Amino acid sequence: MDDLQLVRELDDTPLKSADQLAAARAQLVAGIKPRRRGRAGVIAVATIAVAAAAAAVVVTVLPSGSPDEPRQDATPTGSTAPVDTAVQLLNHAAAAARSKPDEVPRPDQFYYVRNGEWEGWLSVDGTRDGRISTSRADEPVTTPGCVNGTRKVLDKYDKPTGATEKCTPVRAYRDDLPTTADDVLRLLKGEDKGRPVNSYGKDVLAMVSFSYLPGPQRAALFDAATQVPGLTVVEDVSSGRPGIGISWPVPEGSAPWAEPVVMVFDKDTYEYLGTKNSPQDAAGFVDQVGDRV
Amino acid sequence: MTATDAELIEASLRVPEEFALLFDRHAPHIQRYLARRLGQQAADDLLAEAFLVAFSKRERYDSSRPDARPWLYGIATNLVGQHRREEVRRHQVHPATSHVGDHADRVAADVTAQAMRSMLTGALAVLSTEDRDVLLLVAWEQLSYLEVAEALAIPVGTVRSRLNRARRKVREALGTDNHTEVEELLNNG
């Protein structure tokens, strides 16, 4: 299966039946029929359709992307003992996360992430308007903050439509996650008792990749991961800079050429650096949208 | 014998209502394309508009092309471009673990699938509009390079280079130069 197939399988939007499309067909026929009205009539109908569409579009604003851990000055654990097992490495990573002076952002700040041309300014508490810029060629896009359970609906030019919608703040700073390994495990396990290691690994990866976890939360996550059987240590792996990695076997039934995911940690500080092939360019807290670290 | 799209369009120059037959033929796929890119609500709203735009341009249709799908996809893609911000926001998906307090005991498998889905849709979100147009017309709508070139009014070589760039970016955004790791991410979600 190639990447085109993956993109294809991402989507399972069904084809609609003629009945379901009858309203649009009627709209078309109404626009076609009055031939005498000429093109001006057609354009008028089309304009109304555009206005209706702009008013009806429900915008879902869920900032994310692929944030990574910020490059902060981590406090070395002082341990020079060789790391033989994934459990040891995760223990070191947890200790590093705990001992590191944590950067605590103000609620009105933004978590800035850069990955190639992709840049995101994600609201720390989820209540401020963020921004995402997908490439230098495209205009950036505003992601409205959620205040008192509502947020504004923007039009296609990012101008407020006057409408609002219900929401839950999407926080970039995750001090709301559990701080004990047991609670994290419970969170990871859910109700699925026979969950494969691959599934755990990917959840952990998603957690550290999509938001900023403060030290205690990150430490709890690493502690929890030590209790997941099947994780292995990968020596001499790189994610931007050389490090040491944690991996897990590809599940049965995978393609014969499938490669395992490797999460990479700094060799000395055990700071998380990214996955084997995807180091983060920059990440950190800034005061305003547009500021960079 | 069934009339070709080109013949229908030509007939609609004399009898405008004939154009509705073109809708019957292609609206389901054009609607799904709009829904994939902008969501069902926007797709329902924009479908009639897409065909009305086509209707208004039918005099300029190149009658040497029997199949009107590339032409209709091109028009639909232009409409998507006018709603690019909605599409970008749509691709900004929620982190997997954001409902810790209230959904602590939800089914883990769903969450993992969602996490991986997040990573892949996140990867789509990092593409420029022009690269995404090409990638999705090929991957989702299964248009040939020639048809994409026709739809977007660009040379075939440009289709090829944009598609290569888009695929490379998707692989990079998913953290791999090797697409097998992408597959691994999606396996066993």
Automatic annotation (TrEMBL), chain A:
Chain ranges passing through the membrane: 42-62
InterPro entries, A to Z: CU044_5270-like
Keyword hit for Transmembrane: yes
Protein keywords: Membrane, Transmembrane, Transmembrane helix
Protein name: Uncharacterized protein
From TrEMBL, chain B:
Family statement drawn from the similarity comment of this UniProt entry: Belongs to the sigma-70 factor family. ECF subfamily.
The protein's name: DNA-directed RNA polymerase sigma-70 factor
Lineage of producing organism: Bacteria, Bacillati, Actinomycetota, Actinomycetes, Pseudonocardiales
Residue stretches making up the RNA polymerase sigma-70 region domain: 22-89
GO cellular component: DNA-directed RNA polymerase complex
SUPFAM superfamilies to which the protein is assigned, alphabetical: Sigma2 domain of RNA polymerase sigma factors (SSF88946), Sigma3 and sigma4 domains of RNA polymerase sigma factors (SSF88659)
Domain RNA polymerase sigma factor 70 region 4 type: 120-169
A Pfam match: Sigma70_r2
UniProt xrefs under InterPro entries: RNA_pol_sigma-70-like, RNA_pol_sigma-70_dom, RNA_pol_sigma70_r2, RNA_pol_sigma70_r4_t2, RNA_pol_sigma_r2, RNA_pol_sigma_r3/r4-like, WH-like_DNA-bd_sf
Keyword annotations of the record: DNA-binding, DNA-directed RNA polymerase, Sigma factor, Transcription, Transcription regulation
